[in-house]
Amino acid sequence: MLKKYKEIKNRYNIGCRFLNDAYNIESNIKSQEEINKNPFRSEIINFLLDSLDKSDTNYLEIGVRNPEDNFNKIISTKKVSVDPGIEFKTNPVDYKMTSDDFFNQIKNGKILRRDIKFDVIFIDGLHLADQVERDINNSLDYIQDYGFIVLHDCNPPTEFHSRESFSYYMSPAKYYWNGTTWKAFFKFRQNRELYSCCINSDWGVGVISKNIDLGKPTTILNPFYEYHVLDKNRNDSLNLIDYEVFKCKIRKD
């Protein structure tokens, strides 16, 4: 009995240390702050589609999971959804495949049209930098010159939120996960042929445009994509802006 009591007490002490740890407390606070931010991605996407002032719009969403989360809220004449169905088994999407397969099949003339162009492409698939980078590069081939590429989870509030493994729930970020999307977005923030910004809401909604001036490329040096460098230079690295400021930029152009 004494041995069992010591084991229980030891677990209790470990649990208390975890709950009272400064990193855990900070992560909880920042997670809650992010949850409370508005607007959500669907409102931003609908604003962009509406700003085009077109009677016929074409929207692509990569990484749908449950369509009720975002896809079904988007107002567009034509909507295309892509998801392999790993996280949402019913997977009621148009193309049940990875984004890599989707774009390859378009290029090979197996689905849609080789010359298809979308007005807005929303990337919210696998949140790992290499995959997000491929999704952005592929999207650039199929976005209208006046269109927008939108990315979710570009502004992880702590390093624990930006961990590579989603399944590691014992971190201070718990189930909240932005992955390493920010690294891919930051890489394109250095591209002088594109304009980009990150709306400070809903875990960071990144927007990339070929022609609309959303802000200058970043001059921050972070060759190894280290989180502490991002955190120190967050505003410049991501071109982090308020939603109302963003709307003014779009309406001005």
List the helices and strands and how they pair.
Elements: H1 2-19, H2 22-35, H3 41-51, E1 58-62, E2 78-82, H4 99-107, E3 118-123, H5 129-141, E4 143-151, H6 181-189, E5 195-199, E6 205-209, H7 227-232, H8 234-238, E7 240-241, H9 243-252
Helix pairs in contact: 3-9, 5-6
Describe this structure in words.
With 253 residues, this protein is an alpha/beta fold. Helix content is 38%, strand content 15%. The protein is built from nine helices and seven strands; from the N terminus they run H-H-H-E-E-H-E-H-E-H-E-E-H-H-E-H. The protein has helices spanning 2-19, 22-35, 41-51, 99-107, 129-141, 181-189, 227-232, 234-238, 243-252, and strands at residues 58-62, 78-82, 118-123, 143-151, 195-199, 205-209, 240-241. It has a seven-stranded mixed beta sheet, with helices on both faces. Helix 5 (129-141) links the parallel strand 3 and strand 4. Helix 5 packs across helix 6 (181-189). It comes from Flavobacterium sp. WC2416. One of its GO terms (molecular function) is methyltransferase activity. This is Class I SAM-dependent methyltransferase.
